[in-house]
Amino acid sequence: MTTEVYDLVGIGFGPSNLALAVAVDEHNRRHPQRALRTLFCERQARFGWHRGMLIPDATMQVSFLKDLVTMRDPASDFSFLCYLRERDRLVDFINHKTMFPLRTEFHDYFEWAAARVADQVRYGVEVISVRPVEVDGEVAHLDVVARPAGTDAVTTFRTRNLAVATGLSPVLPAEAEITDRVWHNIELMHRVGDLKGAGRVLVVGAGQSGAETVAELHSALPDAQVTAVFAKYGYTPADDSPFANRIFDPAAVDDFHGASAEVKAMLMGYHRATNYSVVDLDLIEELYRREYREKVAGRRRLDIRPASRLQFVRETDEAVYAAVEHLPSGAVETLRCDAVVYATGYRPGDVFSLLGRAGALVERDAAGLPVVERDHRARTADAVSAGIYLQGGTEHSHGLTSTLLSNTAVRVGEILQSLLTGSRPQRTPVRAVGAHA
Ligand SMILES: Cc1cc2nc3c(=O)[nH]c(=O)nc-3n(C[C@H](O)[C@H](O)[C@H](O)COP(=O)(O)OP(=O)(O)OC[C@H]3O[C@@H](n4cnc5c(N)ncnc54)[C@H](O)[C@@H]3O)c2cc1C
Question: Which co-factor is required (predicted)?
Answer without folding.
Answer: FAD
